[in-house]
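Q: Could you predict the 3D structure of CDP-alcohol phosphatidyltransferase family protein?
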Amino acid sequence: MVTESYLDTVRRLASAQKKAAPGAPAYSILVNRPAGRLIAALAFRLGLTPNMVTAVSATFTFVGILLLAVLPVSWGLGIAVWLLLAIGYACDSADGQVARLRGGGSRAGEWLDHVVDSLKIVTLHLAVLISAYRNFSLNSPAWLLVPVAFTAVATVLFFAMILNDQLKAVHAAKFGVVVAPTRTGSLRRSLLVLPTDYGLLCLIFVALGAPIVFFVIYTLIFIATAGYLALASVKWFRDMASLDSAGVSTAAPRGTFASEHVAGSEGAQ
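A: Sure. Here are the predicted structure tokens for CDP-alcohol phosphatidyltransferase family protein:
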């Protein structure tokens, strides 16, 4: 039984909160994480498990995506989709925080969280494609390629970030070398990468009452996200190359190869 007050739970969670990734988008740091903390404290006091919170997150998110795909566009729909997606996003932040309050997460919970995230990333942009085809007066059907391309870019970006973490973790476990962040975060950088933030993407659905305005903003965010992915991919590839170099220079047990590829089957477990 939880004996502390709700505010005490919020304060305890804030003190135990893991630090945001260097240069994380501003919405995630300033809005979503604090909102997730409030939800996490409530969920903890209600006795919900992290997986239950993930299920709540998925429910809000996929209801919003379904409404976007099947209903005619309007200001009311836009506000509803934004709220459903935003609440789902806050709950997505809350599940990990609930796990910390309960003493730690699980591999199964992490797997579930990532699978739900990957599904929402794909289906959200496909829902935009369906809605644009059914409701938007675009001057050329070629514009429908924007949500198709956004689906690809968002999927690759999510996978690349997950893969970066996994390869670095495998490298650290194999060679006993902890890979430190290459840069520290700053408010300036957080604002610069704001166009890549899922929270901002949720917010622009408010403009569904003016479909062309929405689609212009959506296209600009796609361009910014694609540009970020292109630039980040160069850096990430160099980071992985530096891990290869570090592995070669690290003394390995006789009969092994320090430069062996680290992305074997063990890296996914």
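Q: Anything worth pointing out?
A: Residues 6-268 form a domain with the Four Helix Bundle (Hemerythrin (Met), subunit A) fold (CATH 1.20.120.1760).
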